[in-house]
Amino acid sequence: MYNLIGAGIIVIGAGFGLGQIGGKAMEGIARQPEAAGKIQTAMIIVAALLEGLAFGALILGK
Predict the structure, then answer these.
(1) What does the alpha-carbon distance between residue 18 and residue 37 come to, in Å, rounded to a whole number?
(2) Residue 49 has what DSSP assignment?
(3) Do the Cβ atoms of 8 and 57 come closer than 8 Å?
(4) Is residue 61 a part of any domain in this protein?
(5) With 90 as the cut, is the pLDDT of residue 25 above it?
(6) In the structure, what pLDDT confidence band is assigned to residue 60 with cuts at 50, 70 and 90?
(7) How many whole angstroms separate alpha carbon 36 and alpha carbon 50?
(8) Structural domain includes residue 45
(9) Which residues contact 18 (CB under 8 A, 6 or more apart)?
């Protein structure tokens, strides 16, 4: 029972984090369009690390 609650919290947290990353990256690109490539690269790296952390937490919580 508690495993399912923990898994739900992990998924909600990861979704919130990915939304924040995407939103802030779009704000940064809107302010400095010439830096779009660097911002996108950093965004993808951070998003991949966040997803990896979420999957790891789900596996350990199982």
Answers:
(1) 18
(2) H
(3) no
(4) yes
(5) yes
(6) confident
(7) 21
(8) yes
(9) 47, 50, 51
Q: Which amino acid is at 17?
A: G
Is the separation of the CB atoms in 29 and 35 below 8 Å?
yes
Q: Which pTM was predicted?
A: 0.79
Amino acid letter, residue 23: G
Tokens 């999957």 sit on residue: 55
Total domains in the fold of the chain: 1
CA dist 48 → 27, 33, 59 (Å): 20, 23, 16
Tokens for 23, please give them: 């939103």
pLDDT reading at 8 higher than 80: yes
Q: Tokens representing 15?
A: 């979704």
Provide the residue range defining the domain that includes 7.
1-16+35-62
45 pLDDT band, cuts 50/70/90, is very high
